[in-house]
Amino acid sequence: MSSPTNPNDASFSMPRQMQQWMQSIHKVTNGNLDFGSTTGLDSTGTPNDFNTGNTKGVLIRVGASGSSNGPKYNWTTSGTGVVINHGLLKQPIGFHVVDSDKPLTVHRTVTADTNQITLAPSDASANATLYIFSSGGQ
Length: 138
Prior knowledge:
Layout lengths: L15 H14 L8 E4 L5 E4 L6 E7 L9 E2 L7 E4 L6 E9 L5 E3 L7 E6 L6 E7 L4
Parallel strand pairs: 3-4
Antiparallel strand pairs: 1-2, 3-9, 5-8, 6-9, 7-8
């Protein structure tokens, strides 16, 4: 299968909005979807700080209760919510546990808003990386 034609290289003219749409499709189909990358590691070498990438969400590391490995957030006790400032400026539509060092479920304890989401762990002794999904739009 050949690589898709880059809309910037196309020899035909098209409306600007269509060109922007085609450029975004071209970017994704060529592997340029980026959920974020590591900008810091804790003392064990585990990523604990991230940039935002080019998707509409953020990666957040939450450390085990009492951990001092450098995450911005730590669980307090199992089942107790921790307020996370997600910085999305939109109400998140959900989250996903991307990484944890032991079996873990996480649930939302109150409705998220445009600045914060409150999440609680099933096991506060777990370290976890969460991806918080933003709602779409401008």
